[in-house]
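Hi all, posting the design record for the shared folder.

TITLE: backbone redesign
STEP: 1 of 1
STRUCTURE INPUT:
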């Protein structure tokens, strides 16, 4: 199976929420890659970090040889959450992430049937990466998601709307979709965002999939019996990574959405990615078995048995 490549930020995040304050390793590309890795998919991470990036074993099991260490500060985000888990970005410093380049992706990762996912980066940068990858590997499957901070100007929105029609999977949450389409109504947003496959996540309600290559459908999400939410940072990126991992194996949209929702929920039961980084499932169905075990109050198998 071809490697699933994630390109985007690896960051140092300061998180403030009702559970406390924590500084931890994060970044959209890293969260997505860890989720895919948990589903037994070979992953590669393409990014750039600074000399201030802390020593961590969290990257050891990922394909990280394409992560450049530069003489520049690592990308940093300071996120403060309300009691209802709404994120306020107090600070966003791009740092080393400004020097992420498509040229970092080697040709060995761009074989036919390869999948390349672009985590949130400035729309103009993503456009350059899409052009580069399409030129080098026309058959590669491209996916992307974005961040509401990159939907603020009309120029950014025009670039993103164009990208939506160029990639194979364009993923957003419902608030980002409305912001991009400049509407308060999701059905209007679905009409205005022209994509091959547009996937709009809606939290506990599931996800809506529409586009020129699929029929519009809504797929409900399953819930995970976690005691409480600890940290929602990166939950959307985990959703995307899990979705792509399952879809690359099964080509089944329903199963991909189901597993993505479950793994994203599991992620929120711990800080950062600590709740999912040691998980390893041989098959997507094993994720459901694991969650059933949680619901029953005890696991019948060890994680390593899956």
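Okay, here is what came back for every position:
SEQUENCE:
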């Amino acid at each position: 199976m071809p490697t699933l490549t994630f390109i985007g930020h690896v960051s140092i995040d300061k998180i403030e929420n009702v559970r406390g304050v924590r500084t931890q390793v994060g970044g959209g590309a890293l969260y997505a890659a860890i989720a895919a890795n948990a589903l037994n998919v070979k992953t590669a991470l393409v990014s750039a970090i600074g000399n201030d990036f802390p020593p961590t074993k969290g990257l050891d099991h990922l394909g990280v040889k394409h992560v450049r260490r530069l003489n520049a500060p690592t990308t940093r985000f300071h996120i403060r959450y309300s009691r209802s888990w709404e994120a306020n970005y107090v600070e966003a410093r791009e740092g080393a992430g400004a020097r992420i380049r498509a040229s970092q992706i080697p040709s060995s990762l761009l074989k036919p049937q390869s999948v390349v996912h672009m985590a949130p980066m400035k729309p103009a940068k993503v456009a350059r990466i899409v052009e580069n990858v399409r030129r080098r590997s026309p058959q590669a499957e491209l996916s992307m998601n974005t961040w509401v901070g990159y939907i603020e100007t009309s120029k950014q929105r025009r670039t993103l709307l164009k990208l939506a029609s160029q990639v194979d999977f364009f993923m957003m949450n419902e608030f980002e979709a409305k912001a991009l389409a400049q509407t308060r109504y999701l059905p209007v947003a679905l009409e205005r965002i022209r994509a091959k496959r547009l996937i709009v996540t809606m939290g506990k309600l599931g996800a809506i999939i529409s586009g020129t290559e699929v029929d519009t459908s809504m797929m409900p999400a399953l819930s995970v019996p976690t005691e409480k939410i600890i940290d929602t940072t990166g939950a959307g990126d985990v959703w995307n990574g899990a979705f792509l991992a399952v879809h690359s194996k099964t080509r089944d949209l329903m199963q991909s959405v189901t597993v993505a929702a479950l793994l994203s929920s599991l992620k929120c039961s711990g800080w950062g990615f600590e709740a999912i980084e040691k998980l390893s499932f041989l098959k997507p169905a094993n994720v459901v078995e694991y969650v059933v075990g949680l619901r029953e109050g005890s696991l019948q198998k060890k994680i390593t048995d899956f």
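COMMENT: The two ends are 19 Å apart (CA to CA).
Let me know if anyone wants the other runs.
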